[in-house]
Amino acid sequence: MQGLEQKLSSLSVGRRVRADGPGIYLLDVSLQPGGGLLAVAGSDYRLSLYSRETLRPVGEFRGHTAPICGLTFARAAPHLLYSGSADGTVRAWDERSPGSQAVQEFSGDPAHRFCSMDVNAAGAVACAGTEQVDEDSFLVFWDVRVTGKGLLGVYSESHSDDITQVRFHPQDKDRLATGATDGLVNVFDLRRGDEEDALLATCNSGSTVAAVRWAGPRLDRLLCLTHGDGLHLWDLRRLDTEEPLALYSAADARQLAPLPGGGGPGLPGGRAPLLECSERWPELLGSPRGAGHTAVVRCFLWDEEGEGVLVTAGEDGQLLLWQPGRKG
Fold first, then answer.
1. Residue 325 backbone dihedrals phi, psi, to 5 degrees
2. How far apart are CA 124 and CA 6, in angstroms?
3. Residues 234, 236, 237, 241: is their CA dihedral positive or negative?
4. Distance CA 89, CA 110 (A)
5. In this predicted model, what pLDDT tens digit does every residue of 275-293 receive, in sequence order?
C-alpha cells in the first residue's frame, strides 16, 4: 500500500477540459481497454470522446433523449461504447465513426426507464436496471451479439425500488452485483439460470445505494457507497461459510481517519477522497492536492497503464487528468 500512497500523493492536475456549454454536469467516464480514448457522459445527453493522453476532444455521439445512466467500453470489443439511458434504451456506438448513429439499440417494455447499465466481461450480455414501475423493479438482459432486440429475459423479484447500480465482475462474465434505493445489494451467478437460483447473496446497506464496485486484490469483495455517504465492504469468499459477509460498515465515510501524512476526508468543494481496500477494511489514503474541482465529483477512474493517472469529472463540467508531479 505504501507504493500506492506515494503515487497518489504525487498527483497534481496535468490536463483539464471543460464541457462545451454552460451548466453541463459530467456524470460518467469510461476508459477504452488497451486503447487511447476516454468517453464521458454529460447532462445534456451527449457522449464525448477524448484522447486519454491529452484530453483533446476527438468526437461525440448524440441520440439519447433522457439522462444517461451507464457508460462502458466493451472489454471484448473495445471499439464499441455502450450507454444506457432513462429514455428506455441501451445503445452501442462505434468509436471509429464519431458522430454517427448508434450501431445497435436495445429496449424492453415501453414503461421501462433505465437508471443503471453494464456489459459483461465477455462483451456478450448487457444488463440494465429500471426505475420502479408500479411496485416492481426489473433487471433486463440482452444478448448484444444478436442483431435486433436480443432480449434474454428479466429478473423482477430481487429489488423493490429504483435499481441504481448494475456491475458485472471485471473477469467472471456470469457474476453480477446490483444495488438499489431499497438499500439492498444483490449478487447473482447467471450460470444458475432463473432468478431465485441465481441469487447468491443479499446485503443490506441500510440506505439508498449510490455506488457498487468489485474490490480487493482478488476482486472477491463488494464495496458499497450510499447516498448518505455510508460505506460498506462485504467479503464474498465467505458465501459458503458461517462467517458474516460484512467486513466493514461506516455510517459516514467522511469520518474515516486519514493515514499519516495523507489528506483530509471528503470535504465540500470538489475533493475526491481515495481509499485502499486492505485485507481487513478500507483505509483513507487522502485526496489529490492542488486546484481541482469546484463542485461535486460525480465519477472517477484510475488508469494503471503506463505511469498511472487518475481521471475525475464532476458537476463543475470539468474533466481532469491527474498525473504524477505535473501541474496544469
1. 65, 25
2. 38
3. positive
4. 10
5. 666 556 566 655 666 668 8
What are 256-275's pLDDT values in tens digits?
A: 654 333 332 333 345 555 66
- In 3D space, the residue among 248, 315, 314 whose CA is nearest the CA of residue 280 turns out to be 248
Please name the residue that has the C-alpha cell 464541457. Answer: 19
3-state secondary structure 229-262: CCEEEEEHHHCCCCCCCEEEEECCHHHCCECCCC
pTM to 2 decimal places: 0.89
The 3-class secondary structure across the chain, one letter per residue, is CHHHHHHHHCEEEEEEEECCCCCCCEEEEEECCCCCEEEEEECCCCEEEEECCCCCEEEEECCCCCCEEEEEECCCCCCEEEEEECCCEEEEEECCCCCCCCCEEEECCCCCCEEEEEECCCCCEEEEEECCECCECCEEEEECCCCCCCEEEEECCCCCCCEEEEEECCCCCCEEEEEECCCEEEEEEHHHCCHHHHEEEEEECCCCEEEEEEECCCCCEEEEEECCCCEEEEEHHHCCCCCCCEEEEECCHHHCCECCCCCCCCCCCCCCCEEEECCCCEEEEECCCCCCCCCCEEEEEEECCCCCEEEEEECCCEEEEEEECCCC
Tally the C-alpha atoms within 13 A of residue 136's C-alpha that lie toward its C-beta: 10
Mean pLDDT for 242-262 is 71
User: CA–CA separation, 143 vs 186, rounded Å?
Assistant: 22
| Amino acid, res. 126 | A
